[in-house]
Amino acid sequence: MSGNAWRSTLIKLLERCGVRINDASRTTEVSRVMGAIKTQSPQPRTFSRGIQTVTLIPGDGIGPEISTAVMKIFEAAKAPIQWEEKNVTAIKGPGGRWMIPPEAKESMDKHKIGLKGPLKTPIAAGHPSMNLLLRKTFDLYANVRPCVSIEGYKTPYTDVDLVTIRENTEGEYSGIEHVIVDGVVQSIKLITEDASRRIAEYAFEYARNNQRTSVTAVHKANIMRMSDGLFLRKCREVAENFKDVKFTEMYLDTVCLNMVQDPSQFDVLVMPNLYGDILSDLCAGLIGGLGVTPSGNIGANGVAIFESVHGTAPDIAGKDLANPTALLLSAVMMLRHMGLHGYAKKIETACFDTIRDKKVLTKDLGGNSKCSEFTADICRRVQDMD
Amino acid sequence: MATLTKALKPILGRQLGNTAKVFGASVNSQRGKPTYSPPPAKYGGRHTVTLIPGDGIGPELLNHVRELFRFSCVPVDFEVVHVDSASTSEDDINNAITAIRRNGVALKGNIETNHTMPSNHKSRNNLLRTSLDLYANVMHCQSLPGVQTRHKNIDIIIIRENTEGEYSSLEHESVSGVVESLKIITRNNSLRIADYAFRLAREKGRRRVTAVHKANIMKLADGLFLQCCKEVASGYPDIEFDSMIVDNTTMQLVSKPHQFDVMVMPNLYGNVVSNVCAGLVGGPGLVPGANYGRDYAVFETATRNTGKSIANRNIANPTAMLLASCLMLDHLKLHDYANMIRGAILTTMNETRLHTIDIGGQGTTSEVVQSIMRIIQSSGPLTTEI
């Protein structure tokens, strides 16, 4: 038998004899707060004692400040993460197509995990949105946003604990539009079997790995019979293979109606692109806005980029007023994805404690402190925990 | 002018007469008229209104409406047309449409759409709206003081384009596993709905109209809609105009709903936003909705729920349907009756606090209707026996 099998057999034997062994590796503590994306089993390339390199994209505006804050906090927590900073301003590649710089692409492909700050899309630059470019380059097909009410940041909704999983590549955002005749515009919503199956599989796996009880598919198949019908069919098929997770379907309008009245009835929501965009922002609004919401993008080939979804806030850039919570919580999501749950819990708890304390909050959270003070407080708490 | 015409008649002869006829005709045409006048009540001063019971809670609520009208001696007769949602033939819905064309006004419950049927079986409700060209769906969301909600004093008017956009039902499967759904936006319809919105805002003395869109992604389609709104806005300098992206809108609605006044938007966003607002003011049982076209008007509940799970259990909230019938009475210019019934409903909601289960009370539907009838009897003029 292999090592693990020997260990578990011995432990079981000892337990039967009445000796309890506190085996740290058996704790299946997966915080329901910021759900982990992968199982507890360590990734083959992550050595628990080794240092994992992560590509860091600071971004524009307040991006560099909050990235520095996150790096400081990770240092204080002694997390085994090494950062490799890269810039992703679009350049024109051979053939005239816009692409991200090849060093950035290589770095991401090598390390597979990325953390991204807010990127701005200059209006007259000629190149498409940077986020779109990243999405296309790494085939980031799933956007995951866990929304949990933050104790200490009061909103009218106190019992939110749900995850929105949104298909990120097709749907209404396919970008295929044309003017048929002058005054009549047609925009095409594309739904394919493969993409729908992929996102449904991801949603169910996520639910299973994070001890979530149900997955709800959100659709409008009464009106868009074929397209949302196809999406629903795929979800139903995938649900057959995941009998341990409950599967329900609900119309988009019913979800919106119920979400605003009682968000606690929802668990994991999976949906096509447009509905996902609207619903994930709705849920972010329920817990306090984009400044405190983490987000992760999962791609094919094991690539995952975690990001903060707020804007670049050029008016407060460089003034040490930014709130690093969103990027920090996304980084915590990243740690869980990599299997470093201990560090994730430590940093997350420190962050929530600081917010709950209300002593050093940044302006958008209702306080008066600077970003550096907020960061220092979290660092202090993290160090105190050791 | 008339005498001049008479004097010139022998000289210009028939030409002037014909011109006068032509001009006369165009003056009488409906196109220039801002508001539609319903057909005059022909038989003994009584109006005939088409009634479509629909499915779920529709039939029982519309029975209550009829009961209430009979009790309050409202001069409205209902022509009931049943639409069988299970049948595949379109005869039923065509009969209903003919009846509405005949009477000009209708009150309806929601007709269920079985989305496992093949896609040539269109949604009956959608068919009704497009055949009668009911281009504007108007929903006035007002917080009722007697109902407990997280946000208070909400007062938003939502105007939603009702015929095109994502609800065009134009879908095809180009290749097996790849489905396209077309979203159509036309200049004429966008101008029409924007004009309706601004006129309504002016009529009701509202300060600001907000256009909700996603033009940063759907540049051509929503871009056209937004452009049309801006064009119309320039003709109403007394009303402020701004625009907001739909995901930001939903976020703002759940955190700061008081910033919105009148909102205008294409079809699908209208669905999402109206359901979010209905949820904010207390649920689907409280808000009435109206669909206006150039020649016809159909009244129903705003969120168009079938309510299958609560059908025939005497627990549905009749408020939405009763308020919709008041909107219908206002449309027929029977304002006294409308105000009497509306006053009684609001008194029941706010003062006697007789609430049904969906808003946290214990009352049954019939109890609420009885209470309304009692209030009408005590305050109003002539009534029949209870």
From TrEMBL, chain A:
GO cellular component: mitochondrion
Record flagged with keyword Oxidoreductase: yes
Cofactor(s) it depends on: Mn(2+); Mg(2+)
GO MF annotation, one: NAD binding
GO biological process: one example: tricarboxylic acid cycle
Keyword set, alphabetical order: Magnesium, Metal-binding, Mitochondrion, NAD, Oxidoreductase, Transit peptide, Tricarboxylic acid cycle
Catalytic activity: D-threo-isocitrate + NAD(+) = 2-oxoglutarate + CO2 + NADH
Subunit-structure text: Heterooligomer of subunits alpha (IDH3A), beta (IDH3B), and gamma (IDH3G) in the apparent ratio of 2:1:1. The heterodimer containing one IDH3A and one IDH3B subunit and the heterodimer containing one IDH3A and one IDH3G subunit assemble into a heterotetramer (which contains two subunits of IDH3A, one of IDH3B and one of IDH3G) and further into the heterooctamer.
Family: Belongs to the isocitrate and isopropylmalate dehydrogenases family.
Physiological role: Catalytic subunit of the enzyme which catalyzes the decarboxylation of isocitrate (ICT) into alpha-ketoglutarate. The heterodimer composed of the alpha (IDH3A) and beta (IDH3B) subunits and the heterodimer composed of the alpha (IDH3A) and gamma (IDH3G) subunits, have considerable basal activity but the full activity of the heterotetramer (containing two subunits of IDH3A, one of IDH3B and one of IDH3G) requires the assembly and cooperative function of both heterodimers.
Name the record gives this protein: Isocitrate dehydrogenase [NAD] subunit, mitochondrial
From TrEMBL, chain B:
UniProt cross-references to Gene3D superfamilies, sorted A to Z: Isopropylmalate Dehydrogenase (3.40.718.10)
Pfam families for this protein: Iso_dh (PF00180)
Recorded GO CC terms: mitochondrion
InterPro entries: IsoCit/isopropylmalate_DH_CS, Isocitrate_DH_NAD, IsoPropMal-DH-like_dom
Every Isopropylmalate dehydrogenase-like domain range: 48-372
UniProt KW keywords: ATP-binding, Magnesium, Manganese, Metal-binding, Mitochondrion, Nucleotide-binding, Transit peptide, Tricarboxylic acid cycle
Location within or outside the cell: Mitochondrion
Main location: mitochondrion
Function recorded in the entry: Regulatory subunit which plays a role in the allosteric regulation of the enzyme catalyzing the decarboxylation of isocitrate (ICT) into alpha-ketoglutarate. The heterodimer composed of the alpha (IDH3A) and beta (IDH3B) subunits and the heterodimer composed of the alpha (IDH3A) and gamma (IDH3G) subunits, have considerable basal activity but the full activity of the heterotetramer (containing two subunits of IDH3A, one of IDH3B and one of IDH3G) requires the assembly and cooperative function of both heterodimers.
Protein name: Isocitrate dehydrogenase [NAD] subunit, mitochondrial
Organism name: Cirrhinus molitorella (mud carp)
Lineage: Eukaryota, Metazoa, Chordata, Craniata, Vertebrata
